[in-house]
Amino acid sequence: MTLEIRDLAFAYGDEPVLDGIDLTARSGELLGLLGPNGSGKSTLLQTLNRILEPDAGSVRVAGDRVSELDRTALARRIGYVPQDEQGAFPATVFETILQGRRPHGGWSPGPDDRAAVEATIERLGLAEFTTRNVADLSGGQRQKVRLGRALVGDPPVLLLDEPTSALDLKHQLDVMELVVGHVRQRGVTGVVAIHDLNLAARYCDRVALLSDGEIYDVGGPNVLTPETIRDVYGVEATVKDHRGRRLIVTERPVDALPADARTPVASADDD
């Protein structure tokens, strides 16, 4: 199910955050949103899901305007995984994931809803924690629960906001493998805001680089070059090919160098 974003703009009061965003995400691909803090990644995700209402432009899912869908119809089409959640009521793993079935079964879940939750819990490797309070889980386990709540409704579009933030290396890989596997096996349209350039290069089919609320560049992981990383992040970097993947090694902030030394570090592609 195609997700189309056209000329999207958003501001917090008089402070513009997004300006003229044009993007298309396709079924079966994971599109990464990259950029430094404040570039608009999280805000963009929240405008796609109508957590925030854009000031201008349009968002369409399979040709339908998101702004014209009611909340239930929107929740059936778009699943959202936030960075973190504060102040959530105590609930077990089963109860939390079951919340993702409400757009389908309402407040009275039936056998199909319960079966879907059980299958999702098993798929995420959380079976031993089914009756455990989510607050008692590790950060990586809680993130899997949030992911499960989004997946259990089987939405055709999946939005993820920094799903690997604050996770250790194993859980980062676990979560990204789960996301990519789901996107490709189910033909889901996935959009993920992510900080780690190497995870983005490894798992994302395409990436969109945001800078000051605008699209700097869009393309495959090969758009991550020393030049683009320097321009968007203000960081010198070495970029290499490693086992068919892009490998980014950050070197130093650009402003830490004398002006006459601020030249891009060579990419392995230049050899």
From TrEMBL:
<dbReference type="GO" id="GO:0016887">
    <property type="term" value="F:ATP hydrolysis activity"/>
</dbReference>
<dbReference type="InterPro" id="IPR027417">
    <property type="entry name" value="P-loop_NTPase"/>
</dbReference>
<feature type="domain" description="ABC transporter">
    <location>
        <begin position="3"/>
        <end position="237"/>
    </location>
</feature>
<keyword id="KW-0067">ATP-binding</keyword>
<dbReference type="GO" id="GO:0005524">
    <property type="term" value="F:ATP binding"/>
</dbReference>
<dbReference type="InterPro" id="IPR017871">
    <property type="entry name" value="ABC_transporter-like_CS"/>
</dbReference>
<dbReference type="GO" id="GO:0015420">
    <property type="term" value="F:ABC-type vitamin B12 transporter activity"/>
</dbReference>
<comment type="function">
    <text>Required for corrinoid utilization. Probably part of the ABC transporter complex BtuCDF involved in cobalamin (vitamin B12) import. Probably responsible for energy coupling to the transport system.</text>
</comment>
<keyword id="KW-0813">Transport</keyword>
<dbReference type="Pfam" id="PF00005">
    <property type="entry name" value="ABC_tran"/>
</dbReference>
<keyword id="KW-1278">Translocase</keyword>
<keyword id="KW-0547">Nucleotide-binding</keyword>
<dbReference type="InterPro" id="IPR003439">
    <property type="entry name" value="ABC_transporter-like_ATP-bd"/>
</dbReference>
<comment type="subunit">
    <text>The complex is composed of two ATP-binding proteins (BtuD), two transmembrane proteins (BtuC) and a solute-binding protein (BtuF).</text>
</comment>
<dbReference type="InterPro" id="IPR003593">
    <property type="entry name" value="AAA+_ATPase"/>
</dbReference>
<protein>
    <recommendedName>
        <fullName>Cobalamin import ATP-binding protein BtuD</fullName>
        <ecNumber>7.6.2.8</ecNumber>
    </recommendedName>
</protein>
